[in-house]
Amino acid sequence: MKHVKFSITKRNTFTTMAVSFFTFLILNFTFSTGCKVYRFADVSIPDSIKTVRLNFIENRANYVNPQLSPNLTNHLKQKIVNQTRLTQTNSDNANYDISGTITGYNVSTSGISSSGANNNQRQASMNRLTVSVHITVNNTLSNQVQEYDVSRSFEFAATLSLEAAQSQLLDEMVRNLTDDIFNRIFSNW
């Protein structure tokens, strides 16, 4: 019995030491990274940046979806407010001045099906809508300008008209483009 107690005590001591060590590492990491750069969900913003202005994302694509630009602008504003510590402003002296343009809105065939006796009749079965956005971030404190291009494709059945596909895909387009733009600006990937 004494041998069993010694093993359990030895094992408990090792477990306690391991837990203490990992707790020390986690606390050390937490306090050492909090002093230089703000981090939240992989968001990295220098401490000096306090305010942001997001200008209306203009639609300059050849084909204009009238709902995309305002929805994209509003959702990006909401995401910045909800996931950063930055204060939104309409002032010209914002620390980050962000502007964007929808530069592409193109439909192409992404899938073809064959039919007929010898499979010699081909027709589109899937289409792809590709949306491209150009983003400019002006850091007014350091006089640095960074530019990003974000592009995302969305598949839809070739039997749908573009108008019907747009209404079905609008929420997904806005959500995915918002995430991609946010990540390019604040996570720098």
Structural notes for this entry:
The protein has 189 residues and is an alpha/beta fold. The chain has a single domain, classed as Lipoprotein like domain (Double Stranded RNA Binding Domain), CATH 3.30.160.150. Helix content is 39%, strand content 37%. The strands form two sheets. Strands 3, 4, 5, 6, 7 and 8 form a six-stranded mixed sheet that branches. Strands 1-2 form a two-stranded antiparallel sheet. A hairpin with a 2-residue loop joins strand 1 and strand 2. 18% of the residues are buried.
Largest sheet: 6 strands, mixed
N-to-C series of helices and strands: HEEEEHEEEEH
The tally of helices reads 3
Distance N to C terminus: 59 Å
Shape, per Cα inertia axes: elongated
Instruction: Please give the CATH architecture.
Output: 2-Layer Sandwich
Query: Please, what is the average pLDDT?
Result: 81
Share of helical residues: 25-40%
Percentage beta strand: 35-45%
CA radius of gyration: 26 Å
